[in-house]
Amino acid sequence: MKSIHYTLLTLLLYWKLPASSQAQDTLTLESGPTIAQREFVDHTYRPLTLKLTEDGSKYIRFLFWNQLWARATQNNPGTQGVEGNLAGRSSDVGLRRARVLAYAEISPKFLILTHWGINNQTFTNGGIPAGGFTGNAQAISPDENILVSSKKPALFFHDIWTEYKITDQLYWGMGLHYWNGISRMTSASTLNFMTLDAPIFNWPLIDLTDQFGRQFGFYAKGQVGKIDYRLAYNKPYSVGSGGSFEETTQRPIAANTINDNWASQGYLAYQFLDKENNKLPYFVGTYLGTKSVLNLGGGWHHHPGATSSRDSSGNLTRHDIRLMALDAFLDVPVNKVSGTALTVYSVYYNYDFGPNYIRNVGVMNVGMGAGSSQNGPGNAQPTIGTGKIWYTQAGYLLPEKVLGEDKGRLQPFGAYTIKNFDYFEQSTHQFDLGMNYFINSHQAKITLQYSQRPVFENYRKNGTAGELILQTQIFL
What we know:
Number of helices: 1
CATH topology: Porin
Largest sheet: 16 strands, antiparallel, barrel
Structural class: mainly beta
CATH class: Mainly Beta
Strand content: over 45%
CATH architecture: Beta Barrel
Helix content: under 10%
Order of helices and strands: HEEEEEEEEEEEEEEEEEEEEEEEE
Number of domains: 1
Number of strands: 24
């Protein structure tokens, strides 16, 4: 760990990374001892900002970040490896995110933002579709003979929007945007999670009717007193082949269907203590004691006629997607002398996609074949569906003296999830446990997390499986 520590600090010295934990806040240059006085620990820097005026009031701001995962995964039953043999376990190193974001203000009246990058590349997937066996290595699913690309991933845009100031309390914009409804975590920043990553069900439309959490549309946002709000009217991506009727259980199964309908969404929060910055939509996961925040919020997403199902006679019925959530966020310093801080977030989701809707998700899943459980192969699990989810995470920033001065900070954390999907006969519980090692706040950190997931057979939990992930993150 000591060698890793000094290697990363040397890299950080050259990049001169910031000390702020919130990318969307204005960042300032901090003074400090010379490098000779503090070997390899001077993290002061000038933000990657192109000043368009002498006073810096007009500018272009750039952000870059990489998140890499090394994993040891206990695969779901029946998972096959890339060679077609049963594989009870797998291990790999992959790219979770590599992003670039730029936004500019040349007037307080308007803002332009562009955000691009790649996600989820492993040694078996994440590359350009049908790239070929020579120029772009492929893996073949033994059961389905499907070509899966793994090399040369294509960059794509995550956010592209333009925004105009109407009043101090109202900003209006349009484009491919991230001003989401439902919950705080539905608009979470990927730069400052407290846990290793999001639980995914916080993005219930992920890569179906949205593009990695974004939809085209109009939005309004602002703060009125202690109320922070965001509202949007979007044109979701038109996807899906429609639902079905499940013969084994004699019940309709809803699935996404092609439609031409607009969707509304919104999220409102009451800020009891410090106000949060809302220049950009990305909610902070943990402030590490730099703010005192207590927020209560709620939101929704409504998309008419977005799914369908069939009865035993084959008759088609359309359903609205109706998603709602209530949440609470607490982030406060506990002891300012020792530097301790507490972060707690809890959210209740009530999702209605139509009868018995279910969707399995496996993040950066390298498992092949169909699997022999209802989870599917690899690390997949029932993640999104009609039903209710309660999710809570908590973390505690340990005193500075634990590692010693200028040696970084530690934050143990845990998360607990209860899912009750209509598709299954019982609710399930699962947990995540981990530790953040902050070399320089969120700008340079290493996270280790163990996650447990339920495994389903015959519509009931039949066991569990685990995954251990080591993440390195640097952003500037």
